[in-house]
Specification:
This protein has about 120 residues and is mainly α. The protein is about 70% helix and about 5% strand. The chain has a two-stranded antiparallel sheet with strand order 1-2. The chain is elongated.
Length: about 120
């Protein structure tokens, strides 16, 4: 993924910049010079962040477009699945069988009528 490589490069550069300015700030005794050092460091960090965003922006736009397409394809199926399932509270937690199958059991009407632990009961 190119944007991760770019972020790693920028992080290394930012760390090197911070380490290289630390001795300079330690040598200078005045408050003005320390403030100036922090100001320069802040400007350097802003420049690095701008360049990182410029490098990552096309990849993020492609990702946004691809996710939009995928959501457009999946949305009707997810709506149908949601209509079939109904309320998730109608089911027990998933169980993994020894053979690797996963089953999700529907709660019986008696179980649905019972209050959950910690739930208030109307009297």
């Amino acid at each position: 993924m190119p944007y991760i490589e770019a972020m790693n490069r920028i992080a290394i550069t930012l760390t090197a910049l911070m380490l290289s300015t630390a001795p300079l700030m330690a040598q200078e005794a005045g408050d003005e010079s320390v403030d100036e050092g922090f100001s320069l460091l802040e400007e350097g960090a802003k420049i690095i962040m701008r360049s990182m965003l410029d490098e990552v922006e096309p990849t993020l736009k492609d990702l946004q477009f691809q996710l939009g397409e995928a959501w457009g394809e999946m949305e009707p199926m997810l709506r149908d699945l949601s209509a079939m399932i109904g309320d998730i509270k109608n089911y027990h937690a998933p169980e993994v069988l020894p053979n690797g199958d996963i089953i999700i059991r529907r709660k019986s009407p008696e179980e649905l009528a019972m209050p959950e632990p910690g739930e208030e009961i109307d009297i």
